[in-house]
Design brief:
heterodimer; A: 179 residues; mainly alpha; 3 strands; globular; B: 416 residues; alpha/beta; two-stranded parallel sheet; 17 strands; 23% strand
């Protein structure tokens, strides 16, 4: 059973769930954390599926899965801290925002996209939300070429078409630095 | 390698929509030149917001800026494809222009669910009748507008949240608006005119925040209402008080609020509650009330008695905030310390945090603090912030002497 340094085996008495990444690496996580991944939750919602079954996550790399688990673990902890008390809620929210910023700060564009695909496949609403926000921040005020590279898009406009498209929304390009 | 590229570039459609929805309208529209597939991706975004950030114009001339923005909104609405669920217009140079009527008409045909309009300056903008045909509205937020619903208006059947600030609305129109929105959960009213009698008939209302001038307020069927903040900006005349000596504003207020959890009594509202009979205790205690904030004039006996009644009726209070209202000193009325005999009969078993702000250090205030310290066995913090440094030392000296029933209580003196 593989176990990288950032993912210590839980020694709690609670149930754990095994998740298998696309390269076969297996991650053992606490049930509460695993259930943050709606895809995993649905997997077990089916009748007759025992919690011992290893959940195959064929579309998620082990690097991405490790980060997802790390985020979900912290998110579950923070949620437990907040409650009716406004002060505690505020603090928990700040901590969560710090956690999110930390996660995206170090990531390359490719890394973020990989995380987005993982969060999408695993159906983790909050994570997908802040990742999309982070991407929005990254492409804001960037040149058209930069954004094309980010989304790996080929410019299939003819020069004339491109000009017409630009003119259609000329106001959006005013006051912007040249590409 | 190519397969990998494919995998990463193919972000699913809804994810791209999610990313685009985090961009300003201007940024989103720029994606139309990325590739032919992206030309109109932005055009199906269901949320549109036009505000000060959405574009920068080099001109200082308000008319030029306004004309540009009108152009842009027209442009975007025309190119847009599909339902528009959220629309916000809040720009300092877009005042009450007739183009707004056209846009609201358009939105009423596109299943609008959330509509926010802020007219920064100038006259109240009269909302067009097409606003009242937006049957899918679940959130409506207006700033500096005038509302005159047409006679045929039957209410917003899906409206859950209503936020009206600096609005004009006739008395009967207000009453029927509230009662014809059966799903209403949140209601905010600030600085309104045209109506002064507030009868809130809202079976699903949970949150109510109001600040303005009104004559009376009452609730009906509000069994879900848990968070209330009321600020009465106009002083209740003393003649009024004598006239209503047979009724009780306080009793009337609480009769339909069994589940109240957070209550803020701001500005002169405590004076309003003090009108009429003030019992020693409410007939039914507010067992769910765990946060209370009151603005009070400690020199006013009736306000003090009203506050006392409120406190006696809130056995489960966890947090209390008391803000002193500085009014002209009433001719010294020596009245008995009404707090004295009470500390043993109604201890606050849950009260942990107390905040006292703006006091002068006069006797009634000190008596109150003394009472609280004795009646709060689990008190953790009491912070006291006087109105000014005058008398600060005297206040401190008194505070030091007070006995406390809670061993963990910290009294924190904050500089004014």
């Amino acid at each position: 059973m593989a176990n990288n340094g950032e993912n210590p085996s839980p020694d709690v008495g609670g149930k754990t769930v095994k998740l298998k990444a696309d390269d076969g690496e297996i991650f053992e996580v606490e049930e509460a954390v695993a259930m943050e991944l709606q895809t995993v939750k649905s997997f077990f919602d089916d009748d007759g599926v025992s919690y011992d079954t290893v959940v195959p996550l064929l579309n998620v790399s082990s690097t991405a899965l490790a980060k997802v688990i790390q985020y979900c673990r912290r998110a579950v902890e923070l949620r437990a801290k907040s409650g009716d008390d406004e002060g505690a809620n505020e603090k928990a929210r700040e901590e969560r925002e710090g956690l999110e910023a930390e996660l995206v700060r170090e990531e390359s564009d490719e890394g973020i996209k990989e995380l987005i695909l993982a969060a999408n496949y695993l159906n983790i609403k909050d994570m997908l939300s802040f990742l999309c926000r982070a991407v929005g921040d990254r492409i804001k005020n960037k040149s058209v070429e930069y954004v094309r590279r980010f989304f790996v898009l080929e410019n299939d406009f003819s020069p004339e078409e491109e000009e017409r498209t630009r003119n259609e929304v000329a106001w959006a390009f005013e006051g912007v630095d040249a590409d | 390698m190519e397969m990998e590229l494919d995998k990463i570039s193919n972000l699913p459609g809804h994810v791209i929509d999610h990313i685009l929805s985090n961009l300003s309208i201007r940024e989103a529209v720029r994606t139309s030149v990325l590739s032919s597939k992206w030309r109109y991706k932005w055009a199906t975004l269901p949320h549109l917001a036009f505000d000060n950030q959405c574009f920068s114009v080099s001109s200082q001339d308000h008319t030029i800026v306004k004309n540009k923005l009108v152009n842009i909104v027209d442009h975007v609405l025309l190119l847009h494809n599909g339902p528009i669920y959220k629309f916000k217009l809040s720009h300092r140079d877009v005042l009450g222009i007739p183009d707004i009527d056209r846009w609201i008409l358009h939105l009423s045909r596109r299943s609008i669910k959330e509509f926010v309009l802020e007219i920064w300056k100038g006259q109240r903008y009269k909302m067009p009748s097409s606003l009242f045909s937006c049957h899918n509205l679940n959130h409506l937020e207006l700033f500096n507008c005038l509302l005159k619903p047409p006679l045929a208006f039957k209410g917003f059947r899906s409206l859950k949240s209503l936020d009206l600030q600096h609005v004009t609305l006739a008395q009967d129109a207000f009453g029927s608006l509230i009662s014809s929105c059966p799903l209403l959960e949140r209601l905010t009213l600030m600085n309104f005119d045209g109506f002064t009698h507030l009868n809130i008939d809202a079976p699903n209302l949970q949150f109510f925040d109001i600040g303005g001038s009104f004559e009376d307020i009452s609730f009906e069927n509000t069994f879900c209402l848990t968070v209330i903040s009321i600020g009465l900006y106009v002083n209740v005349g003393s003649d009024k008080r004598r006239a209503y000596s047979n009724s009780s504003n306080l009793l009337k207020f609480f009769v339909h609020l069994p589940h109240i959890r957070r209550l803020e009594v701001q500005s002169y509202f405590l004076k309003y509650l003090a009108v009429g009979i003030v019992p020693g205790k409410l007939p039914t205690p507010c067992v769910h009330l765990n946060y209370l904030s009151i603005r009070i004039n400690f020199n006013d006996v009736e306000e003090v008695l009203t506050a006392l009644c409120l406190l006696r009726s809130s056995p489960n209070l966890q947090e209390l905030e008391v803000l002193a209202r500085p009014e002209e000193q009433v001719a010294t009325v020596t009245f008995t310390n009404c707090w004295e005999d009470d500390h043993w009969s109604c201890p606050f078993d849950q009260l942990r945090q107390v905040k006292i702000v703006g006091i002068l250090g006069i006797k009634p205030e000190l008596n109150f603090i003394n009472f609280l310290l004795l009646a709060t066995p689990v008190l953790e913090t009491m912070s006291v912030k006087p109105a000014s440094i005058h008398g600060g030392w005297e206040l401190l000296k008194e505070l030091l002497r007070f006995r406390r029933s809670s061993m963990q209580a910290e009294i924190i003196y904050l500089d004014p």
